[in-house]
Amino acid sequence: MTPSPSVGPGNPDTPSHATLPQRHETHLRVERLSLPASLALATDGKAPFAALGYGTPHGVAWMPTVNARVLSDSGAMADVWHAGGAQIKSGTTGIARWRTDGHWLLGAIDLDESAEKQGLAELAHRAYRDLFKTLDQAGTPHLQRIWNYLPQINADGGGLERYRQFNLGRQEAFLEAGRAAFEGAPAACALGIHQGALSIRFLAGQQAPLPVENPRQVSAYRYPETYGPRSPTFSRAALADTGDGNLALFISGTASIVGHETVHHGDVQEQTRETLRNLQAVITAANERCSATFSLAGLDCVVYVRHPSDTATVRAVIEEALGADAPMARHAVYLEADICRSDLLVEIEAHAVAAGQLRA
């Protein structure tokens, strides 16, 4: 997502100091494609709005990747976002790289801890500070969805688990920027990768999404202090108006947690089943807030598996619950990743789009 090296009036990408485009159509849509199909969209020299890649090359400017091993048989995939704006601009704000059509923005941040010589809390604070500057400068103030990836998420960081260090810096940046760190926080996930940099991907727009919570779980921002000095900053899901009479449902990373406690310790089958129950609870809560009808079977999901040897077991549970031909089962991307709690073996995050409107 770095700016194109050849910039000019005939190039759709212009640097960060350029005037942002006039807004016309405001719709947003997403499709999950193989890597070859994704790259084929840019063969005419005009890339799509943006994409989030899984196992994709690092050098594709419009497709920041998730640096995690792909466990799916289908190999590298991407969620390609198409925006309705007349012209796409790209640029940088501090350490954040972004692309926008004037209504929607997808950004990426990567920070190498070994090169930066700062602690994880400080790096998370810095990353989110520049994230919020990006939104303000681009005129896309409302976060829709965030993806966080950090190496060694469960490791000790000098007396405090690294995930808890990350939560310290993240929440501090939310509060300093006057952003909703509790009720109204965006949908998000935070996973542990085995290599690479602290990586943050974010989608923003001009209208605030509607946060959705899971009645089976304590809201993450209300977790007791036993989970760290600062609570995680995210809502369980969010509903966003994507234009053309459609709504997007963004579901945060979801795992085998009831109330605020991990359940089914050491049992990946039961943890997967509990995760599916939590996903269904979130979908039911979302459907009550809008006229759209979302379903578990219709989700496009990313399944994060702690132990690669568990992948077939997790897939079998999903196919048993939904049927092997369900879109969620057929289109799922499986990645190797550590979950934010060391006793969790699997986590699923997802999105879906359906016709409908938010209820008043």
TrEMBL record:
<feature type="domain" description="Chorismatase FkbO/Hyg5-like N-terminal">
    <location>
        <begin position="79"/>
        <end position="204"/>
    </location>
</feature>
<dbReference type="InterPro" id="IPR035959">
    <property type="entry name" value="RutC-like_sf"/>
</dbReference>
<protein>
    <submittedName>
        <fullName>Enamine deaminase RidA (YjgF/YER057c/UK114 family)</fullName>
    </submittedName>
</protein>
<dbReference type="Pfam" id="PF21168">
    <property type="entry name" value="FkbO_Hyg5-like_N"/>
</dbReference>
<dbReference type="Pfam" id="PF01042">
    <property type="entry name" value="Ribonuc_L-PSP"/>
</dbReference>
<feature type="region of interest" description="Disordered">
    <location>
        <begin position="1"/>
        <end position="20"/>
    </location>
</feature>
<dbReference type="InterPro" id="IPR006175">
    <property type="entry name" value="YjgF/YER057c/UK114"/>
</dbReference>
<dbReference type="InterPro" id="IPR049368">
    <property type="entry name" value="FkbO_Hyg5-like_N"/>
</dbReference>
